[in-house]
Amino acid sequence: MVPVCSVAEFVFGVLFDSDSEAAFIVTRSDRLVVCVNRRFEDLVGRDSAALLGQSVAALIDRDHDRRGPAIVDQPGHYEDVALSQVDGYPRYVELAIAHVEHPELGPLAACFARDTTERRGLERELIAKHSALYAAHAELEGLVTALRAAQQELEARNQEISFLAGQVARVGWRAAIGELAAGIAHHLNNPVAALASTLRTIGTRLDADPDRPGRAELDQLMQRALGAVGRIEEQVAAVVRLHRAGTYDATPRWLDLARELDTSLTMFKGRLSSIDVQRDYGGPISAHVPQDPLHHVLGSVIDNAVSAMPAGGVLAIAIARQQDLWVIAVEDSGAGVPAAAAATLFDPIVGVRGRGAGLGLATAHRLARLWGGDLVHRQRQRGACFEITVPACERPGSPTTRGLR
After folding, report:
1. Residues 202, 76: Cα–Cα separation, whole Å
2. Rounded CA gap, 95 and 306, in Å?
3. Domains, the chain, ordered by start
4. What percentage of the chain carries pLDDT values higher than 70?
5. Which of 167, 321, 347, 384 has the greatest number of C-beta atoms within 10 Å?
6. Please, are residues 336 and 382 in contact by the beta-carbon 8 Å criterion?
7. What are phi and psi of 403, to 5 degrees?
């Protein structure tokens, strides 16, 4: 039997008895432990009597490390090697393995083990904190995106309300406009209040952890989000102030329907970049109707068609003669009108899109009938089609009206 001390001195020299590194030696032929130092005994919680002559398999915690005893067969540096302790919990170490030849014991594996359990725990804690930080950052970015979307929605509703406010007051719709503004304010105030509450909750959590990594960036995002909430609240108040009254001119005049359609389309130029607008009408096409109500009806129908195609599509507008009427057809390639909503499509305060106050089509339908025309919905397999009818008549003292027959 070769003395343990001579094996250790042969392999490690004076380093074996130092307290700085835990070391042990195993035979490569049968993987048996032939030598351990005091530092290694302390590391695994067992003395040399319980370790010497044992298989290295008894040192590797197979529940937490699948590499097993074969790890000593290849020299090198290994991270997160799980060693079995006497209390049953694994001890994670960095294991450096070198192969040596002993004149009597033959091939040996000399192993240095450095305890990394605490570092591993700190790394896991750091990863958890970083994950929480990224989650908070993503949540704030989501709030900022939601606020931007709400602001864009408010701007779109502002355009719609501005158009309505200038058209309907003369025929007793001032109360409806007030209800419309109040409805928008109500619908926006609820999500804004929820966003503000969420921001306060996040702020409270951040204050509870002042040393959180990236705190400065999170504070900056919080300020941006709170500022956006404030701007939305100001704009809601402005909507209520802005749309309390409005007038329009209901005097009939001779108009070119083709030109009025082109004028209405220019109002939506900024929203038509991803939409293919197809025109099927000539000109001039003469009609005797009030200009402001006509613009309102055209704008309302085109706005609904454009809103039905947020990702782009085809907007087809045509004018055709049917007996004593001009028929303006506005057709989109959007999702269409649900069958359940078709019966109440022109009822006031009944929205089809799930948002807004539902006055656009109702007002347009009533105004079209005021000039002797109509606004109807034609069911399609895909998309929606609205037809606006205008009485066709010849302008006194002028040649026969040119246009589509």
Report:
1. 47
2. 67
3. 4-115 (3.30.450.20), 121-242 (1.20.58), 252-391 (3.30.565.10)
4. 79
5. 167
6. yes
7. 150, -160
